[in-house]
Design goal:
Blueprint (H helix, E strand, L loop, with lengths): L6 H10 L25 E5 L6 E5 L9 E5 L5 E7 L2 E4 L6 E8 L2 E9 L2 E7 L8 H10 L4 E7 L2 E8 L16 E2 L4 H14 L25 H5 L18 H10 L14 H15 L3 H10 L23 E2 L2 E2 L24 E2 L1 H12 L6 H7 L4 E2 L6 E2 L4 E3 L7 E7 L4 E7 L4 E7 L6 H13 L2
Helix pairs in contact: 3-6, 3-7
């Protein structure tokens, strides 16, 4: 079953595995006197993710004799020595940590090995800054497949295609290749909701019971704001992305599902929450979801190559996804209705677009083309703090450094076949687009590399 998940959910899920299958290890809890714990203590930023911090620390009440690891939204885990600068999680099988690159008595690199893959991090302030040429060479060396676009204001600084979009003779990716942007779709749904709010057709405080019949008591008070910020308590999903499902059946499944947490209290990423927002757009506007976005968002932004089915894609325009070197279907060749994907995906993922259209979208946001200045500020405001991959979530965006010149609004997307990332530094006019038709974790490190370089100038 293919799932559309965001970058934040991917990382939170991988780290959350720590909470399960706990077993006691028998490895000796010995620290070499020549390697004091203070060598490891500090914050390490994961290179593949937008500002996600792993903390290594000791506790004064234990006389700083034990080493711990923690990540945002996760409990503290004790580490026990297993070798030179190597540790294991005391109560979790299959999770190990290694420290590398010692300098002046401190280690600068951390590697977390876990059952679902390896996470790499560097001590904060020690991230390597590469220039465009070096990053380009790394993309080639790692056989990246996709398109990368970097711009500042109206100037395109870097724009290059790599790899293949399909196995045909002329099947190389080019600058106009169309990709599935996965959960980046959510920011268009959020913008559509805010457009209706700007037009005084809805209020963000409106409750589900205003738009849907027979909403059960435990869900009737969920607000549009809570759907937008993933604080509704709703589960992530109720079925596969490409399952055929009617609106009635979808709503029945959603309303019968159990809440994950109390409404408005915690962040819990919910794809179905954004599908409900898509349905609200349709009920208020009287138009199909994609038709509304096309008229109110894509056309004003001059995005002629964005949507589900309206753009009338050419045969060789949309990239096929690749997994382990095997070519799969194009996203729009999957089980879609005549209006695009069914509700398990519609509104929360699956929009198809080019990198150049996402630059137009970034410019439309910054120029208040679709949303007025006040509504744009609301759109990009850190509404919900949740200590996940981003410290705050806005409306369809992760928000970092909100009160800084380096403010970052960012969202990634992932499926079994595609990996996508969109970074905007609005105060600097910087836009970074990464679209890949392979689900490689490396894809999520690319935007950070360009961002580090540009912000250091």
């Amino acid at each position: 079953m293919k799932q559309v998940i965001t970058l934040s959910l991917m990382l939170i899920t991988s780290l959350s595995i720590m909470s399960f299958s706990c077993t006691n290890k028998t490895k000796a809890n010995q620290i070499n006197d020549t390697n004091p714990l203070k060598q490891y203590v500090g914050e390490y930023v994961l290179s593949a993710y937008a500002g996600y911090i792993i903390k290594i620390f000791t506790k004064a009440k234990e006389n700083d004799t034990k080493l711990y690891i923690s990540a945002a939204g996760q409990p503290d885990y004790e580490l026990i020595a297993t070798g030179e600068h190597k540790f294991a999680f005391k109560e979790l099988e299959g999770f190990d940590v290694e420290f590398r690159d010692e300098e002046n008595g401190l280690f600068n690199e951390l590697i977390v090995v876990q059952p679902d893959g390896t996470l790499n991090g560097v001590r904060t302030g020690k991230e390597k800054i590469d220039d465009f040429s070096t990053i380009d060479k790394e993309l080639v060396a790692k056989e990246f497949s996709g398109v990368v676009l970097v711009a500042q204001d109206d100037n395109i600084l870097f724009n290059k295609a790599y790899g293949r979009k399909n196995s045909q003779k002329n099947g190389l990716n080019d600058l106009n290749t169309v990709f599935d942007i996965c959960s980046i779709t959510k920011q268009f749904t959020a913008a559509g909701i805010l457009k209706l709010s700007m037009q005084n057709k809805i209020s963000l405080d409106d409750q589900l019971s205003k738009y849907f019949d027979a909403v059960p008591n435990d869900k009737k008070n969920i607000t549009i704001h809570q759907l937008l910020t993933h604080s509704s308590g709703l589960v992530d999903g109720i079925g596969g992305d490409y399952d055929t499902i009617t609106e009635e059946a979808f709503l029945n499944h959603v309303f019968r599902s159990n809440l994950v947490n109390e409404i408005g209290q915690d962040f819990n990423y919910s794809n179905i929450g954004y599908s409900l927002l898509g349905l609200i757009i349709e009920r208020v506007s009287g138009k199909d979801y994609e038709s509304f976005l096309n008229e109110e968002i894509f056309k004003p932004s001059k995005m002629k190559h964005t949507g589900y089915v309206i753009p009338k894609w050419k045969n060789n325009e949309v990239a096929n996804g690749f997994l382990d070197g095997i070519e799969h279907k194009k996203p729009n060749e999957e089980n879609w209705s005549e209006n695009g994907p069914y509700l398990n995906l519609k509104g929360n993922g699956g929009i198809l677009t080019r990198a150049s259209d996402l630059l137009l979208w970034s410019q439309a946001i910054q120029n208040n083309t679709v949303l007025d200045k006040a509504t744009t500020a609301q759109y990009l405001y850190p509404h919900f703090e949740f200590n996940g991959i981003y410290t705050n979530y806005g409306y369809g965006w992760g928000i970092e450094n909100n009160n800084s010149e380096n403010k970052l609004v960012v969202h990634g997307g992932a499926s079994d076949l595609f990996a996508t990332d969109l970074w905007i530094h609005p105060n600097k006019g910087i836009t970074i687009v990464v679209l890949s038709n392979r689900p490689d974790e490396f894809a999520y490190s690319i935007a950070r590399k360009f961002s580090n370089f540009l912000l250091a100038q």
